[in-house]
Amino acid sequence: MTNDMASDAPLIEVKNLAVRFHTPTRIVEAVRGLSFTLGREKLAIVGESGSGKSMTGRAILDLVPWPGEVSAQRLAYRGRDLQAMKPQERRGLRGKHISMVMQDPKFSLNPVMTVGKQIAEAYRVHTRVSAAEARERALAMLEAVQIREPARVFDLYPHEVSGGMGQRVMIAMMLIGEPDVLIADEPTSALDVTVQAQILDILERLVTDRGMGLIFISHDLPLVAAFCDRVIVMYAGRVMETLDAKDLRHGKHPYTQGLLGCLPDLDHPRQRLAVLDRDPAWAGG
What we know:
alpha/beta, Rossmann fold, 6-stranded mixed sheet
C-alpha cells in the first residue's frame, strides 16, 4: 500500500473547513472552521436546520452547488489530499470509496428508471462487469438491506416503493461499491419508528461487518446518543462541542443543553417545553 493510502491514516481528516456562498448582496458562511477526524466508527453531526450539517457532507464529496466555495487547511481521505486531486479523481472516489445517502430518496432517485437498474448502474460506473453480473450484484444488495422479493423490487420504479423501501434502495445503491466511508444525511427522518429501527439495524450491521466509517447527519439527539460513538454539535456553521455519544445528555455547551431542554420527556412531563435562547456570540464574528 502506498504512503498516501496508509492503513493507519484516518479515513477522513477535516481541518478548518469553510463553505461560503457568494450572493449579490453578501457572503453566506454555511460552514466555518470545522475540524474533525473519522475512523472506523459512527460519528454523528447534529444541530438545527441550517447549521451546516449537510454542507459538511457535500463538501467532503465535492458536491457543494454553485455559487458555493469550499476551502480547508486539510481535507483528506486516507491520507490523500482531496483538494489537490483533479475533478476526475474526486469523481472516482464518489461511490467507490465515499458514498452519501441523501435525505429524501424521492428526490435522489431517477423517476424514469427502475430502482434495480439504478443500483446496477452505480456498480458498473466503478467496475468493468457485464450487465448480467451487475444485476446479480444489485439483487444481492437489495437482499442485504432486507428487502423482500428483491427480483420483484428490482423492476419497480421509485414512485412504486414506500418511503422505507426507497431509503433501503438508496443505501443499497451507495453501498454496492463497498465504500470505506458512508455519509448518511437524515436517513430516518421521514420514517416511522419501526422502519427507522430497521434502517439503523442495517447501518449498524454493515458498518460493523465491513469496518466502514459512518458520518450520521441528524437532528434527533436521543437517536444519535443511542446509535453513534461520537457527536459533533453544530450551530451556524460552527462546532459548539464534540463529545462521546453516551455523554451527550451531559454536554457542557449551553447550545447542547438548550437543544436537550427542548425535547419532550415522557418520564418527566412538563406543561410547556423550553424555548431555545440563542446567544449571538455562538455564531462568532
